[in-house]
């Protein structure tokens, strides 16, 4: 793979702070900032509260109502790649992902954080890394969505990896893949000026039906939040400043 020397570096930080009865989840990257608080009884989710602090489209916060579908879901040892009873495409993709991971995290009290870095974020050749509590779990070179690495992910493609992953990976690596796959896909938008897009309807050709906002019945009403993309992120320490522990 070609050596990477790119100024396009994308970061995403996700924090889980879990007690015996509550799981707080916070995620921030250049485009998004969500804080979720889940109540649980040690067996199931009992409540979900969402705060959308920064979103790319005006209708994104309305997706919070859909998160109530997670109330009653059992806590898990192994992440579920999908839940047949919950339509992911009618959810906010990013909050849905956070809750899927939280179903596992909530069973284990403690403080944990994922940090993702994607170098060459918007280009064909990329370098993607993922840390959990300062331990590097994933280190990939990518050509498009094809993985080149020195581990079992080598030659897998992010577009079609999940069936293989469910059958092959242990609990920890399956969760890491779930977190990193979304980060890599979001990173591809780095360098694009989303403020030039008036509403989500103008991006429907590529995103139709992908999530709550990109459903045909509401995309035209989902107006771009001008200036919501952060341009000042130089490292993970710039993210979740009000949430992360010192």
Automatic annotation (TrEMBL):
Superkingdom of the organism of origin: Bacteria
One Pfam match: DUF2889
Protein name per UniProt: DUF2889 domain-containing protein
Species name: Halopseudomonas formosensis
Native organism taxonomy: Bacteria, Pseudomonadati, Pseudomonadota, Gammaproteobacteria, Pseudomonadales
């Amino acid at each position: 793979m070609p050596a990477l020397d790119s100024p396009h570096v994308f970061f995403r930080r996700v924090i889980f702070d879990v007690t015996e009865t509550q799981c707080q989840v916070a995620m921030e990257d250049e485009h998004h900032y969500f804080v979720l608080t889940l109540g649980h009884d040690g067996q199931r989710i009992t409540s979900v509260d969402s705060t959308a602090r920064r979103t790319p489209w005006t209708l994104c916060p309305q997706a919070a109502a859909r998160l109530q579908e997670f109330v009653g879901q059992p806590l898990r040892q192994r992440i579920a790649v999908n839940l047949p009873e919950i339509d992911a495409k009618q959810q906010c993709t990013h909050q849905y992902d956070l809750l899927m991971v939280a179903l596992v995290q909530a069973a284990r009290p403690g403080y944990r954080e994922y940090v993702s870095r994607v170098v060459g974020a918007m280009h064909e050749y990329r370098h993607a890394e993922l840390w959990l509590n300062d331990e590097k779990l994933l280190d990939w070179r990518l050509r498009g969505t094809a993985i080149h690495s020195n581990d079992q992910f080598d030659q897998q493609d992010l577009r079609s990896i999940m069936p293989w992953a469910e059958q092959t990976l242990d609990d920890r690596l399956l969760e890491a893949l779930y977190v990193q796959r979304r980060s890599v896909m979001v990173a591809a938008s780095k360098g694009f000026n989303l403020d030039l897009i008036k509403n989500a309807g103008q991006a429907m050709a590529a995103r139709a039906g992908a999530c709550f906002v990109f459903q045909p019945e509401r995309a035209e009403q989902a107006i771009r939040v001008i200036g919501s993309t952060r341009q000042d992120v130089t490292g993970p320490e710039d993210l979740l400043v009000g949430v992360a522990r010192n």
